[in-house]
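Morning. Coffee machine broken again, so started the prediction first thing and wrote up yesterday's gels while waiting. Chain of 257 residues, entered below exactly as on the submission form.
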Amino acid sequence: MDMIVASDILADLHVHTIASIHAYSTLRECLIEAKEHNMEYLAITDHYYNEGSLVQRKNEINCMCYIEEWVTPNRYGIKVIGGGEFNLNHEVFKKDRLMKRLHWRLLGTHSWFVDRKETTLDQLYQYFVDGIGFCNAFAHIEREISELDHKAHAGGLDEPTKKFLTDMVHLAKENNIYLELNEGTLARHKVDDIERLEFWLRLAKENGNFISLGTDAHYCELIGNFRRSIVLLNKIDFPKERIINCRKDLLDGLFVK
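Came back before lunch.
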């Protein structure tokens, strides 16, 4: 199978701007950096918090939903994909009509927004099930598991964790949802997280899943740097044709309603 190289990757599908509050770069800075790294597509996936006053919540939704209208086309020649990163226990985003404008919707594990002491892996799985029909991709499913319900599992690759990740791989395949290989996990997270990531990625290869790549950049200079992801993909010989970031036809297909 052909080796994956940096020039094969046309898109970064997980990027944050200052609209996420805990990120550091403006949209323009992100576009400039994406151009430097030869990205042709950039998904802006700021966090959806749904907090504050009514005006603050409406502004948050508008900021996410109108980005393509305002930014594409742009002087950098990059197709901007309007997106967002959503937390498992927020139901309201699925009901807002404007959210349908978003072409890239990530549903990710964030232990900030679930009860760490009480949530089980079965409940975590059900949260993802509840997001079917709204999200395009499940984001960093390997992360933060060790912070949830220590009675149910040890947090590494014990049998309950393997079952959860296996079930997630099958759930994604059955519902045409991408699984995200997150560069941030490889760069900044614990050994257990990386072990879990490699476990599900090998399963996804054999199961026929399609995946997406995202840097999860919270600072613009990280955009488009998939060095660790490329090493892992080549290590397990993951098929390039099942990576949306490497296929213009699938990326352009995101804009078709």
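The longest strand covers residues 79-87. Going to sketch it on the whiteboard this afternoon.
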